[in-house]
Design a protein that fits this description.
alpha/beta; four-stranded parallel sheet; Rossmann fold; five-stranded parallel sheet
């Protein structure tokens, strides 16, 4: 049962049953979009952006329109939250007019402030700790391809970040085995790892975190992200020697018997992944991108349609 004005600031704001239901709903929406053409009729959603965006902005804007709703785009030209106007006042004012707030922000704390002030659901479309909408789209993609998620093994290789966290938490809820391989000093949040481990213990999944890329064996899919996250001040020349051994190549895909390659994009050919892999038939990056819209639509439907 959906909570009254339930917000999703992190992956664990959704129960395992809700996650499973959202994936099923997203797949049905994709197959039968006209059945949901009026689902958000008369509803408006404010979409806030503190970071640049392609997939998030377009997928939410078009997706809300496909359900008969109206998306209101607000970027930092309207004044940075917390500077021109208090974050709490953003939340309070927007609640007067819209039915939900979707926010892509620098800090998770901003989402917490928005939720405290808002009287409508707040959805995290990206922050420094989590990227729940991406994880929903990713697991929707795997469910389409494999049919069953429980028992699959997904390897994330590269810099530990918000995407890694959400893949671990949502994957653990779904019974997916997660293998995270990262360079020394570029690991994941210890609290997130502990949370994921507890959930995995209950769901029957496993969580493996290592810096040794030679320590892993067969996986169903390999996931990579850019070596330098958006807003990170690092320079490629300063980290390339450390990250190069973690590059996704055709040889690595074959060695691990990985069927698919995944990436949340933007991707950098011949950096975190070779062009040979990224542009191959094993790459499902555009399926993931399309499914951002369907997974987000299913999430909004869950939160807003009573």
């Amino acid at each position: 049962m959906t909570q009254v004005n339930q917000s999703v600031l992190g992956d664990l704001d959704l129960s395992p049953q809700q996650v499973s239901n959202i994936l099923d709903l997203a797949i049905d929406m994709k197959a039968n979009p006209m059945s949901y053409a009026d689902a958000l009729k008369g509803k408006a959603v404010a979409t806030l952006y503190e970071k640049p965006s392609l997939r998030t902005r377009v997928s939410f804007d078009v997706g809300i329109h496909k359900m008969g709703g109206h998306a209101v785009y607000l970027d930092q030209q309207n004044g940075a939250m917390g500077k021109r106007e208090d974050v709490a006042d953003f939340g309070g004012n927007l609640s007067c007019w819209v039915d939900a707030i979707v926010a892509r922000v620098m800090s998770h704390d901003t989402l917490v402030e928005l939720k405290q002030a808002a009287s409508v659901p707040v959805v995290n479309s990206l922050c420094d700790l989590y990227h729940p909408c991406q994880a929903l789209a990713d697991y929707m993609s795997l469910k389409e391809l494999f049919g069953e998620l429980k028992g699959l093994t997904l390897a994330y290789i590269g810099d530990g970040n918000n995407v890694t966290h959400s893949l671990m938490l949502t994957g653990a809820q779904l019974g997916v085995n997660l293998v995270v391989v990262h360079p020394e000093g570029h690991g994941i949040n210890a609290d997130v790892e502990q949370q994921a481990q507890v959930i995995a213990d209950n769901s029957g999944a496993t969580i493996t975190v290592t810096t040794d890329i030679n320590a892993i064996s067969n996986v169903d899919a390999i996931y990579a992200d850019t070596w330098i996250s958006m807003g990170d001040g690092k320079k490629l020349e300063d980290i390339i020697a450390k990250f190069q051994p973690y590059q996704i190549t055709k040889q690595l895909m074959d060695k691990l018997n990985a069927k698919y390659f995944m990436h949340c994009q933007p991707a950098h050919r011949d950096e975190e992944v070779t062009a040979e892999v990224l542009d191959s038939e094993q790459s499902i990056i555009f399926r993931q991108a399309e499914n951002r819209m369907w997974a987000q639509n299913a999430l909004l439907h869950t939160l807003l349609v009573k």
